[in-house]
Amino acid sequence: MAPRVQFYHNTPDRLALVRELVAGAWQRGRKLAIRCADTAQLKRLDQSLWTAEPLSFIPHVAIDSPLATETPVILAAPGEDSRWPHTDLLFNLADGLPPGHEHFRMLIEIVGKDEAEKHAARQRWASYRQHGYELKAFDAELRVAL
């Protein structure tokens, strides 16, 4: 079965939106992966998941952790993301198509306001469309479907 893909455009704070969506998905029992743009962003997200809200820790580890198969939230940066232990939900913050994206039930693309991010997102949208995936778009700032 082909994954469903949701794009969240016009995101003022990409890490804040990921944190919000991940918290909701995790509370509903989903297992998910987050593909960061680079290791610096991964470290910021890791710290954010620890400290965003008191008493709301979201269990997460890096993809290369021995606990990755047992942990509901996995973090990786491009180059580290070839073998995801979960294939339920994938959040993508990187510019390119995630390796193994076709194995996930759902892909969530978080796109900021930067023109380079928008351009890369348009390319991913076109690639997903070529694959025949179901695509939906939302304006993250206005919280409406496009």
Could you outline the blueprint of secondary structure elements for this entry?
Elements: E1 4-9, H1 14-27, E2 32-35, H2 39-51, E3 60-62, E4 73-76, E5 89-92, E6 106-110, H3 115-131, E7 134-139, E8 144-145
Parallel strand pairs: 1-6, 1-7, 2-4, 2-5, 3-4, 5-6
Antiparallel strand pairs: 7-8
Short description:
By secondary structure, this protein is an alpha/beta fold. The protein has helices at about 15-25, 40-50, 115-130; strands at about 5-10, 30-35, 60, 75, 90, 105-110, 135-140, 145.
Kindly describe this structure:
This protein has 3 helices and 8 strands, in the order βαβαββββαββ. It has an 8-stranded mixed sheet, with helices on both faces. It has a single domain, classed as Rossmann fold (3-Layer(aba) Sandwich), CATH 3.40.50. The model has no long low-confidence stretch (mean pLDDT 92). With 146 residues, the chain is of the alpha/beta class.
Features:
eight-stranded mixed sheet; 8 strands; 3 helices; Rossmann fold; alpha/beta; 146 residues
Fraction of helical residues: 25-40%
CATH class: Alpha Beta
Termini separation comes to: 25 Å
Could you name the CATH topology? Answer: Rossmann fold
Examine the secondary-structure arrangement and name the CATH architecture.
3-Layer(aba) Sandwich
The helix-and-strand class reads: alpha/beta
Described by strand count, sense and barrel closure, the largest sheet is: 8 strands, mixed
Q: Provide the gyration radius in Å.
A: 14 Å
Discrete helix count: 3
Portion in strands:
15-25%
How many structural domains does the protein architecture include?
1
What's the SSE pattern?
EHEHEEEEHEE
- Superfamily (CATH H level) name: DNA polymerase III subunit chi
Average pLDDT for all residues: 92
Describe the strand arrangement of the main beta sheet, using strand numbers: 3-4-2-5-6-1-7-8
Number of strands: 8
Q: Stretches where pLDDT falls below 50 for ≥5 residues?
A: none
